[in-house]
Amino acid sequence: MRIDVVTIFPDYLAALDLSLVGKARRTGLLDLRVHDLRDWTTDRHRTVDDTPFGGGAGMVMRPDVWGRALDDLMGEPPVGGPDEVPAGAHLVVPTPSGEVFTQRHAERLAGADHLVVACGRYEGIDARVVEHYRAAGHPVSELSIGDYVLNGGEVAALVMVEAVGRLLPGVVGNPHSLVEESHGAAGLLEYPVYTKPPAWAGHDVPDVLLSGHHGRVERWRRDQALERTARRRPDMLAALEPAVLDRRDREVLAGLGWTVDADGVRRDDQV
Ligand code: JD8
């Protein structure tokens, strides 16, 4: 996969030289390129912003500068019908007004050949930029990493590139771990984890984990994942397909005040 990130603060993305994503770049599993938007300015002050039409506080990023940069990086719009896999680049624009980015988005973006991530600053990027590339037939995703306000798109780009990059084949050493993790296929939060020493500051590791009895360990972990999800993310539990819950799961959930039937998974006080 190729990912281009465009920003006026390229150093913000230096963290992507580290750890698994950094290794994926060095081993060729990921072709990640970071660009300075000012390289596409034409004036000696390298201007990327101007005052907002309609007035108001702050500055807006110019469409013409973004257009020159994205025209260079996006390549030709995808050809072929709506049901064909779009070949051209997928434009990703972090914005607080976007759809909230989830593991599902990460999985979908990980299926693309080429992503271009446009990091805005100031009050944002002139709205015609997204309009223009969408109209040209490129897939465009406006995504937010959460309901809080940042000063720009760079932090969100770090989040999205790591979440997508680690799903690429060969990046995470043991692909099995991708299955069990929170927000993974199971749709549950992950169970608590422990390592040596077995006793620490008066806290012991749960006996079942020292039992060597794999069946009991797996069951205990599943029960923990169900309890945690019920307590911390009841929305995720309610979104589960009943078919993924076995008889023991349903007993555990019943004990936590949840009903599972053909119609779904519901808290008893909402039956
Ligand atoms: C892109 C400019 C700053 C936002 C005026 C503060 C994502 N979850 C998220 N929160 N904030 C962002 C984000 C913020 C950005 C830009 C993403 C470009 N800003 C603006 C509007 C209010 N300033 C984000 N993803």
From TrEMBL:
<comment type="function">
    <text>Specifically methylates guanosine-37 in various tRNAs.</text>
</comment>
<dbReference type="GO" id="GO:0002939">
    <property type="term" value="P:tRNA N1-guanine methylation"/>
</dbReference>
<comment type="subunit">
    <text>Homodimer.</text>
</comment>
<dbReference type="GO" id="GO:0005829">
    <property type="term" value="C:cytosol"/>
</dbReference>
<dbReference type="InterPro" id="IPR016009">
    <property type="entry name" value="tRNA_MeTrfase_TRMD/TRM10"/>
</dbReference>
<protein>
    <recommendedName>
        <fullName>tRNA (guanine-N(1)-)-methyltransferase</fullName>
        <ecNumber>2.1.1.228</ecNumber>
    </recommendedName>
</protein>
<feature type="binding site">
    <location>
        <position position="120"/>
    </location>
    <ligand>
        <name>S-adenosyl-L-methionine</name>
    </ligand>
</feature>
<dbReference type="InterPro" id="IPR029028">
    <property type="entry name" value="Alpha/beta_knot_MTases"/>
</dbReference>
<dbReference type="GO" id="GO:0052906">
    <property type="term" value="F:tRNA (guanine(37)-N1)-methyltransferase activity"/>
</dbReference>
<keyword id="KW-0808">Transferase</keyword>
<dbReference type="InterPro" id="IPR023148">
    <property type="entry name" value="tRNA_m1G_MeTrfase_C_sf"/>
</dbReference>
<dbReference type="Pfam" id="PF01746">
    <property type="entry name" value="tRNA_m1G_MT"/>
</dbReference>
<keyword id="KW-0963">Cytoplasm</keyword>
<dbReference type="InterPro" id="IPR029026">
    <property type="entry name" value="tRNA_m1G_MTases_N"/>
</dbReference>
<feature type="domain" description="tRNA methyltransferase TRMD/TRM10-type">
    <location>
        <begin position="1"/>
        <end position="237"/>
    </location>
</feature>
<keyword id="KW-0489">Methyltransferase</keyword>
<comment type="similarity">
    <text>Belongs to the RNA methyltransferase TrmD family.</text>
</comment>
<dbReference type="InterPro" id="IPR002649">
    <property type="entry name" value="tRNA_m1G_MeTrfase_TrmD"/>
</dbReference>
<keyword id="KW-0949">S-adenosyl-L-methionine</keyword>
<feature type="binding site">
    <location>
        <begin position="145"/>
        <end position="150"/>
    </location>
    <ligand>
        <name>S-adenosyl-L-methionine</name>
    </ligand>
</feature>
<keyword id="KW-0819">tRNA processing</keyword>
